[in-house]
Amino acid sequence: MPRFEGFVPGRFPLDAIGAGGFRFAEMSHKGSIIATPIGIRIWPVTRFSEVTIESLQPVLDEAGTIDFLLIGTGADIAFIPPALRDPLKQAGIAVEGMATGAAARTYNVLVGEDRRVAAALIAVD
């Protein structure tokens, strides 16, 4: 299976998660990802405490094509603080945090429904 090298254009469901990474578009990647309507990219975040509005810039850059952002917070659920929630809301994007597995499954359902969704997913084992 080819490795993911930074960005793959297109909208893809996630085929598998776990073992510290993700499988999608017949590729695999170890580490966290951001999936938006224009593609999937590496996200250099390893734990929820590293999530900043700057790290979510790819989502803000595509705000006109995204209604909803799922943040996969790792193995556990974490509260999305106002410092993240408010700028996204101002850009017209609702945000929900949930454990990465649940976020990935929800992302797949919403992509299957052709919804305007993005996901920022912290890799889990």
From TrEMBL:
Domain of life from the UniProt record: Bacteria
A Pfam family per the record: DUF498
- Record's PANTHER family? NADH DEHYDROGENASE [UBIQUINONE] 1 ALPHA SUBCOMPLEX ASSEMBLY FACTOR 3, NUCLEAR PROTEIN E3-3
Q: What protein name does the entry list?
A: Uncharacterized conserved protein, contains Mth938-like domain
Q: List the source organism.
A: Bosea robiniae
